[in-house]
Amino acid sequence: MALSLLLLMARLVEFNQQDAIRKAMEVFWKKGYNGASMRDLTDAMQINPSSLYNTIGDKRQLFIRCIDDYTQARAGALQTHASGFKSASKALISIINESVNSILYSSNSCLAIKTTFELAVTDKDVQAILKHESDLTYALFLSLVRRAIEEKEMPADTDAEMIADYILNAFTGWHQSYIVHQDAARVKKMAKFLIAQISS
Q: What is the pTM of this model?
C-alpha cells in the first residue's frame, strides 16, 4: 500500500511538472529566452521560485528542458505524419504544405527557429539539441527521397542528400522571410516551386 502511494505521488509530481513545463514553454515561445523573466515563468507555471529551483533548476535549465521537449515532440509528430503516406513523394509534399501552413497561420513562429537565431550561436547545449532535431529531420527527408527514387517517383539520378538538405533549409528560409516581409504569397510561391522541383 505504501509503495503504491509513493508511485502514485511520483506520477502526480511528474504530471504536474510536465504541465508546468508546457506553460513555461508558452512563455518562452511568446517572449523568447531573454525577454522572459523569472516572474513571467513562475506566474505562468503557478509555482514559487524556490519550487522551480528545487525541481528543475534555474531559468537556463528550464529553457533547456522546454526546448528539448519541444524538439522531441516535433520530431515525433513529423515521423508520424510521414508514416501515414504510402507514397514517399506525397509524404514530402504534404510535409512541405504543412510547414507553409505552420509558418503562415500559427499564432507563434517555430520555437526552434526563434531559438536558433537567439541562442544557438552562443549556447552549445542549445545548439546540440537543435542539431539533434535537425539531424533527425534530415534523416527522415533523406529516407523519403531515397524511397521516392526507388519507387520511380523521382529520377534515378536525383541527388538524394542535396534534396533532403535543400528541403530542410528551405523551411528555415521561409520562416525568416515571413517574419521579415509578412508576405504569404511569397512563401507559397517558393513552396510551389520546391514542390515542382521534387515532382518533376
A: 0.86
pLDDT tens digits, 133-183: 999 999 999 999 999 999 999 999 999 999 999 999 999 999 989 989 999
> Nearest 5 degrees, angle CA 93-CA 99-CA 103?
150
Between 197 and 110, where is the model more confident? 197
Residue type for position 48? N
Largest CA distance in the chain: 65
Please tell me the distance from the alpha carbon of residue 178 to that of residue 185, in angstroms, as a whole number.
Answer: 10
Crossing angle (nearest 10°) for helices 184-199 and 88-105: 170
User: What is the spatial distance between Cα 49 and Cα 59, in angstroms, rounded to a whole number?
Assistant: 10
In sign, the C-alpha dihedral spanning 49, 51, 57, 63 is negative
φ, ψ at 3 (rounded to 5°): -65, -40
Domains of the chain in sequence order: 1-57 (1.10.10.60), 65-199 (1.10.357.10)
